[in-house]
Amino acid sequence: MPTPPPTGPLVTRDGVAAGLRLLGVETGEILLAHCSLSSLGWVNGGAVAVVQGLLDTLGPAGTLVVPAHSTQLSDPASWSRPPVPEEWWDRIRATMPPYDPRSTPTLGVGVIPETVRTWPGALRSAHPQTSFAAVGRHAREVTDGHAPDCRLGERSPLARLEELGARVLLLGAGYGSCTAFHLAEYRTPAPRVRVGRPAPGGGWETVTEVSVDSTRFDELGHDFERDRPVVRGTVGAADVRLFPVADAVAYAERWLPLHRPREEDFPHPAA
Fold it and tell me: What is the value of pTM for the model shown?
């Protein structure tokens, strides 16, 4: 049977930029963008056109930041989609290529972040599993200093974005994708976990980290939107939300201990 034609709407680079400007995205600002390409409609030029539209809106003085996470650099014992045989685990750990900000691809964050990661002039932070990529005037300031034992806390780009007055753009993405909420987890009681990954110089390493968990973030976002100013609209077929990073973090710091309390603990040293 013939493939049915796309249902649209037709979305273009200029249309993305026009829609964002109408919602109040300003030239020169810093955006932490979480984007779903498929939510927009039929995009002429795909992810490249969306990134171009974002950069057109921000202008040369602006900065586009995206999560560039590489969750594949993790302990195979924790893999479930799909799992691998236990007899493979040691060999996988011994041979997994270490993180390289230039060549390690993103995983699980969509095609738009991967497009930004490979954009001319893009910079990427140093954390091997939860890096961020940035293009624009403040890219180096945002990405520098991402500590290898601080996934999404005070020594990550999230804290720099908060300090710089950045805003979050949810472009077809829900609050469950809002990484800014994770910064609040570092400021409220939370359990610690042991995180395995390939070591920079080869071999395997394990670090102790705050347990990050996006459970109930959709509910958190619903309450945040009810109580705090959030710009809402559409670009193409995608629902859009726009709000300051600092507002989201401050609200989550109050909400999480009340609605999703977690006991703070410290793991025993690895054997």
Answer: 0.94
